[in-house]
Specification:
The protein is built from 17 helices and 13 strands. It is α/β, with parallel strands linked by helices and about 350 residues long. The protein has 2 domains: about 30-250, Rossmann fold; about 250-345, Helicase, Ruva Protein, domain 3 (Orthogonal Bundle), CATH 1.10.8. Belongs to the MoxR family. InterPro entries: AAA+_ATPase, ATPase_AAA-3, CbbQ/NirQ/NorQ/GpvN, ChlI/MoxR_AAA_lid, P-loop_NTPase. This is MoxR-like ATPase.
Length: about 350
C-alpha cells in the first residue's frame, strides 16, 4: 500500500508549480487594487450614517462605475434620498437636487433663456440638471411633460435649447427616488424614460436589529452631525480612470450570447406584453463588468449577469393584463427566464 501511495503523491506535486505561473500571469492583467481601495473608502463613508443596506451600496457603486442612472423605489422613510445624498458627498463633483412636484415645468429642470437689456440678447441660464450627480427626489410626482425634459439629457448627456447644444459635465449620473405607484399623487413614468435607467432598485425596510441601531444612533445625538462627517474620497479624474478599467474587463464570447438570450427571451415570454430592448443587453454587460471589478475580478461570470438581471430588467418589461390580475410580479418572470436559459460553462 505504501508503494502505491507514494507514486501518486509524487505525481500530484509537479502539477501545483505548473499551474502557479498561469495564475500569477493572469492576476496582473488588470490591477484592480486602486478600484477596490476607492470602493472600500466609499463604503466606509456611507457606513458612518447608513445602517445596513450593504447590497444597495454595492449596486449604487456598480451603477456609478458603469456610467448608468439609478431609480430607487421604496416607501417613504427608508433612506432613499439620504443614501443618494451621501453617495454624492463621497464624490468630489458638482451636486444638485431637484424636488419633483406636479407644477414643475421643463424649464425648471433644464434652464431657460433670459433677456439681457444691456446687450439686447438672450442668455441661457443653466438649470439644476447641470451637475455631475443629480438627485431627483420623488421623480414620479411630476407629470409626463416634465418627465420628457429628461429624455435627451439622460441618454445623450446633453440638452438642446433654442437650437444650441449644451453638453453635460463628465461624469453625469441621475439618482432618482420614487414612491410605489400605489401611493397617492404619483404618476406612472413613461417606458422610454424607465429604459434610460441602468438599474431599478427596491429599497426595503431594515431588519429589527438594524432599526435598533438606527434608534441608538439618533438617541445618542448622531443624526445630523454624522452627515457632516462624510467626506469626498473620489475625484472626477479618479472616476474616469476607474471606468476605463471597468471597460477593459474580460468577457467571454459565450457570455455575450448568454446575455443576448436572456434579454431576447423577454420578447417571447407568454407572460410579458413588452420585452426588454437592446439597451437592456448593454446595461447587463456594463453592469456585470463593474460588479465583477468591485468583487475583485477582471473577468465576468454568469453569476454576475444572473445577480443583476432583476435590477436591469424589472422596469423594462410589462406584464400582460392577465398576469397582473393574477398578482404576478416582473421579478417572478425574470427569475423564470434565468432558470430556463442554459448557463454557459
Amino acid at each position: 500500500m505504501e508503494n502505491t501511495f507514494e507514486p501518486e503523491s509524487n505525481s500530484v506535486e509537479p502539477i501545483e508549480p505548473a499551474t502557479a505561473p498561469e495564475t500569477a500571469a493572469f492576476v496582473p492583467r488588470t490591477n484592480l487594487s486602486g478600484l477596490s481601495r476607492h470602493a472600500e473608502a466609499i463604503r466606509g463613508e456611507l457606513s458612518k450614517v447608513i445602517v445596513g443596506q450593504h447590497d444597495l451600496a454595492e449596486l449604487l457603486l456598480t451603477a456609478v462605475l458603469a456610467d448608468g442612472h439609478v431609480l430607487l423605489e421604496g416607501v417613504p422613510g427608508v433612506a432613499k434620498t439620504l443614501t443618494a445624498k451621501l453617495l454624492a458627498r463621497t464624490l468630489a463633483v458638482p451636486f444638485s437636487r431637484l424636488q419633483f412636484t406636479p407644477d414643475l415645468m421643463p424649464s425648471d429642470v433644464l434652464g431657460t433663456a433670459v433677456f439681457r437689456p444691456n446687450t439686447s440678447e438672450f442668455e441661457f441660464r443653466p438649470g439644476p440638471i447641470f451637475a455631475s450627480i443629480v438627485l431627483i427626489d420623488e421623480i414620479n410626482r411630476a407629470p409626463a411633460k416634465t418627465q420628457s425634459a429628461l429624455f435627451e439629457v439622460m441618454e445623450e448627456r446633453q440638452i438642446t435649447q433654442d437650437g444650441t447644444r449644451y453638453p453635460m459635465a463628465d461624469p453625469f449620473v441621475v439618482l432618482a427616488t420614487q414612491n410605489p405607484i400605489e401611493q397617492e399623487g404619483t404618476y406612472r413614468l413613461p417606458e422610454a424614460q424607465l429604459d434610460r435607467f441602468l438599474f431599478k432598485l427596491h429599497v426595503g425596510y431594515p431588519t429589527q436589529e438594524e432599526e435598533v441601531a438606527i434608534l441608538q444612533g439618533h438617541h445618542a445625538g448622531l443624526g445630523s452631525t454624522a452627515l457632516e462627517q462624510v467626506q469626498a474620497v473620489l475625484t472626477a479624474a479618479d472616476l474616469r480612470e476607474l471606468r476605463q478599467q471597468v471597460q477593459r474587463q474580460h468577457v467571454e464570447p459565450q457570455l455575450l450570447e448568454y446575455i443576448a438570450r436572456l434579454v431576447g427571451q423577454t420578447r417571447a415570454h407568454k407572460s410579458l406584453y413588452l420585452g426588454a430592448s437592446p439597451r437592456a443587453s448593454l446595461a447587463l454587460l456594463n453592469g456585470a463588468k463593474a460588479l465583477a471589478a468591485l468583487r475583485g475580478r477582471d473577468f465576468v461570470t454568469p453569476e454576475d449577469v444572473q445577480y443583476l438581471a432583476p435590477h436591469v430588467l424589472r422596469h423594462r418589461i410589462l406584464l400582460t393584463p392577465e398576469r397582473e390580475m393574477e398578482g404576478q410580479a416582473a421579478d417572478d418572470v425574470v427569475k423564470q427566464i434565468v432558470q430556463q436559459i442554459e448557463v454557459p460553462r
